[in-house]
Amino acid sequence: MPATCSACGTSPAALRRPKTGHALCRACFLAAFEEETHQAIVAGRLFRPGETVAIGASGGKDSTVLAHLLQLLDQRHGYGLRLLLLSVDEGIAGYRDASLAAVRRHQHRSGLPLHVVSYRQLYGWSMDRIARHLGPRNNCTFCGVFRRQALDRGALLMGADKIATGHNADDVAETVLMNFLRGDVGRLRRGAGAGPAGGEGAVPRCKPLRHAYEKEIVLYAYFQGLDYFSTECVYAPQAYRGYARALLKELEAARPSAVADLGHSGERLSLRSDLRMPARGTCQRCGYVASQPLCKACVLLEGLDRGLPKLGIGKHRRLRDKLQDGQPLTQEERRRLGALAEEEPPEEQVPLGELGRDEELWGKQELRGPRDLDF
Amino acid sequence: MAAPMSLLVEFGGGAELLFDGVKKHQVTLPCQPEPWDIRNLLKWIKQNLLKERPELFIQGDTVRPGILVLINDADWELMGELDYKLQDQDNVVFISTLHGG
Amino acid sequence: MVVCVALCMTVGPYSGNRLALIVSFPSCAEKCMKCKEASPVLVIRVGDAFCKACFREYFVHKFRAMLGKNRAIYPGEKVLLALSGGPASSSMLRQVQEVSAPQRSNSLHLASLVCYSEGAVCGQSLAERGDTLLQMETILQASRFPYHLAHLEEVFDLPSSILQHAPHNPTGPKNSYKEAVEGFIRQQRREEGGSPSLPERQIQEKLAEVSLRDVPGMEGLADPEARLLAAVRTEQLIRLFGSVKTLTAKEELLQTLRNHLILHTARTQGYSKVMMGESCTRLAVKLLTNLSLGRGASLAMDTGFSDDRHGDVVVVRPMREYSAKEIAFYNHLFGVPTVFTPALDTKALEKASIHRVIERFVYGLQAEFPSTVSTVYRTGEKLSVTPGDASPAAEPERCLLCLCALDTNVGKCKRCLPAPG
Questions:
Q1: Is the CB of B85 less than 8 angstroms away from the CB of C332?
Q2: What is the structure's pLDDT at A115?
Q3: Residue A202 confidence (pLDDT) above 50
Q4: Owning domain of residue B27
Q5: What is the 3-state secondary structure (H, E, C) of chain C?
Q6: How much is the pLDDT for C219?
Q7: Order of strands, sheet of B5-12, starting from the edge strand that comes earlier in the sequence
Q8: ∠ at Cα C137 (C91, B99), nearest 5°?
Q9: A136 SS3 class
Q10: Per-residue model confidence (pLDDT) at position C186
């Protein structure tokens, strides 16, 4: 005989909440989870009536639960939002195509409009092709940088006022740990806040599920019978995030509140005011926010286009400066930037930033030239 | 063939707790076909000296992170770590820098 | 055969992340990176191999530089050293002795020691505790500084004022460190010739005073009634810790009580500065531990060089730039006596508490990425003690237990909320 639900006192409990330790029946858990998300939205003033919100939909559990909840709560509490699904197609065969199918099924059930932007469309490179050039490491760097911009571009195209992402409490906690371990002060300063302000991209972002434990999201999806896609990306997970993730799991086992506590810490960290922070400007080439003359995505793309895929990865500042000045690189330097040994002799050196690819801000929809022929 | 050799093995910083609280051990390593190095000394210690919770001292084939090793009062990092070939009358010290020993 | 062994050393199976320097054989090939002459005895960071003499100089200099850089201790100021008997605080005592040498102008003549004993809650038997205290006292007496022994049992007798922030009362010349130093040197010159010097006389007086004082607790309890009281207190303490369910919460409770005890000792004995011996390694662990406990807002206070949350008594952490390895080597090479006392989590399971999980993680990652500890430590350096949204003028509402500014709007700070389960 299982315990009785501690909320209604009548039904048998279906689960013990990882966050609070309470035993709840299915109905009470669903109600509590929905109400908590609503409270988080209200308390954080995440949305304003009449706003168009693009939900970053990957087809995975978090964004599926988020889309479901936002639609439900919008109806229940009359937020007055226009909700859209926005997906990014990184071009990863066997992974993204399958998860996009899950997004499409959700679109049909929910009736929400869906828009898909692809890396191939935006950058001229699919992840599969990048991975072939880059080898097994650093793929997640490219993918992460590109996805961030892709969501912004997609949201702008759709006329969205805000992007809502499915980041949960575990994601936030991992990020806090990772930024601390890496000493990434810039990211620590931006914090793990949920609020609409302070996003680094062009469109404000929010994370309505940032207080929800991953376990509860999975349970919610399970009890609601939500259909989602749950396979790991075919490219190796980021090594360093892997450490943070393993650590978080151990911390949670030792003290379940650690997940929420890390999120709280992240919000409350305050950095010394005398630290020099990179000034934020815009990318000379594409107009995206950047602290360097070129944004990270444009440097990464430049590296890919030049056959030097590691140009934007790690500490190659000197080599980047050399390119910036139009100086030729030696064979050894090219090798360090990931140039393949059997490659044809280097083409004429053109200063970095003068290839002039992306003239039109945010509106780039055309496939680029002959380099895309491998599809 | 390595002749039997005599070593002074010491444990400190709390590591001695895993060795019945005994800090200094005058040990004699038996003859064996291959020469003695730190790697097989650790195995020998695990079998012959370690009294409890071996994972708090040895992990994999090396010492647990946070345990320092000194060979004749010098950092084992200068001596080739696990590959250091022991010599008769060597002094090997293990110091735990871990809080909970 | 010995010769042969030396020659067959090879590069061996070092992976890329491990110290790449150790390609050559021991002491004969490599030289100390400082003097370029003597054989090195330890590697501090990747590639920095020091000989014994240079290491000692580096170590001692770092302590003096730390005090000088932060201008934390005014000449002639009374300083209380918190000693656990562990490696870092014992090493700190040795450093204070080094800088207190009579020929130094900027000295710490008025240092004194408080040694805390927590054996009762860390599973030590009465006999073991007696033995530990005996070892401690030997070290304390040899230091020739006046000392106080503080037993955790005494927390039951602390006044409630320990939970209050005492407004800062500037007594000394706080504005100009330089003036203070010059003033002190002038004063010393005037005193020269008289022997023993004033501070030394004070030390002797203090010592006499201390030896007269009846230390409540374990030793010197001829009086059966006092012994009974001590036993009752110990029993009470064990019950208190027994009522706390998780090891994480026990660790936090112990830290809070220990801080209260040290603060009380400092206040009653008239000290305005307390030195704590936390190393860089320990601070890295503490940073991540406290981050995981939700103390993000108080990290800078909990780990910074100077911690003025109590107002009248400032805690400083002069050992914060030494790694645990440097300290262990220093103590070993220069015969610094330490007393090993078990901690709450000694021999506990690896995953038993947040503290334990983080410690294992940091040491493990450090073995793989040698910059882990220093990166975490340096991230901590960049944090501010004042919360971002605080108005600078208003006196913040403070947590009753840890005295840090409240970071929630529900009345209690994160650490002091009851632990779930």
A1: no
A2: 94
A3: yes
A4: 5-96
A5: CHHHHHHCCCCCCCCCCCCCCCCCCHHHHCCCCCCCCCCCCEECCCCCEECHHHHHHHHHHHHHHHHHHHCCCCCCCCEEEEECCCHHHHHHHHHHHHHCCCCCCCCCCCEEEEEEECHHHHCCCHHHHHHHHHHHHHHHHHHCCCEEEEEHHHHHHCCHHHHCCCCCCCCCCCCCHHHHHHHHHHHHHHHCCCCCCHHHHHHHHHHHHHHHCCCCCCCCCCCHHHHHHHHHHHHHHHHHHHCCCCHHHHHHHHHHHHHHHHHHHHHHHCCCEEECCCCHHHHHHHHHHHHHCCCHHHHHHHHCCEECCCCCCEEECCCCCCCHHHHHHHHHHCCCCCCCCCCCCCCCCCCCCHHHHHHHHHHHHHHHCCCHHHHHHHHHHCECCCCCCCCCCCCCCECCCCCCECCCCCCCCHHHCCCCC
A6: 47
A7: B24-29, B5-12, B91-96, B67-71, B74-75
A8: 45
A9: coil
A10: 66
Domains of chain A: which residue ranges?
27-268, 281-339+356-365
CA–CA dist C119, C153 (Å, integer): 10
Contact yes or no for C153/C229 (Cβ under 8 A): no
pLDDT tens digit string along C396-413? 788 888 888 888 764 444
Q: How many CB atoms lie within 10 A of CB C146?
A: 22
DSSP one-letter code for A229: -
Q: Specify the CATH number for A27-268; select among 3.20.20.30, 2.30.300.10, 3.30.460.30, 3.40.50.620.
A: 3.40.50.620
Query: Which segments in chain C show pLDDT lower than 70?
Result: 1-29, 46, 101-110, 168-222, 387-394, 409-421
Asked whether the predicted pLDDT for residue A311 surpasses 60, the reply is: yes
3-state SS of chain A: helix, strand, coil percent to 5? 45, 10, 45
In sign, the C-alpha dihedral spanning C231, C233, C239, C245 is negative
Helix (H, G, I), strand (E, B) or coil at A220: helix
Of residues C76 and A375, which shows the higher confidence score? Answer: C76
B101 domain-assigned: no
Task: Collect all residues of chain C within an 8 Å Cβ-Cβ radius of residue A275.
Answer: 382
Counting residues of chain A whose pLDDT is more than 70, the rounded percentage is 85
Over range A196-221, report the average pLDDT.
81
Nearest-Å Rg of the Cα atoms of chain A is: 22
* Positive or negative: CA dihedral A25, A27, A33, A35: negative
Please indicate, yes or no, if residue B37 is contained in any of the structural domains: yes
Average pLDDT over residues A280-291: 80
Binding site as annotated, residues of A: 56-58, 62, 88, 166, 171
What lies within 8 Å, CB to CB, of A105 at 6+ separation is: A227
- Residue range C337-389, pLDDT digits in tens: 999 888 887 777 778 899 999 999 999 999 988 899 999 999 999 998 876 55
The stretches in chain B having pLDDT less than 70 are 1-2, 99-101
- What's the token pair of residue A57? 């939909």
Which ranges of A139-238 would DSSP assign to H, the alpha helix? Answer: 139-157, 169-182, 185-190, 214-224
Cβ within 8 Å of residue C347, ≥6 positions away: B17, B52, B53, B56, B100, B101
Nearest to A251 among C292, C300, C352 (CB): C292
Contact C41 B73 (CB under 8 A): yes
DSSP state of A371: G
C-beta atoms of B98 and C366 within 8 A? no
The answer to whether the beta carbons of residues C95 and C193 sit under 8 Å apart is: no
Asked if C87 contacts C338 with a C-beta cutoff of 8 angstroms, the reply is yes
**Is there an interface between C and A (3+ Cβ pairs < 8 A)?**
yes
Contact C356/A176, CB-based, under 8 Å?
A: no
Question: What is the bridge-based pairing of β-strands A52-56 and A82-89?
Answer: parallel
Which residues from chain A sit within 8 angstroms of residue C361, using beta carbons?
243, 247, 250
CATH of the domain at B71: 3.10.20.30
Q: What is the mean pLDDT of chain A?
A: 82
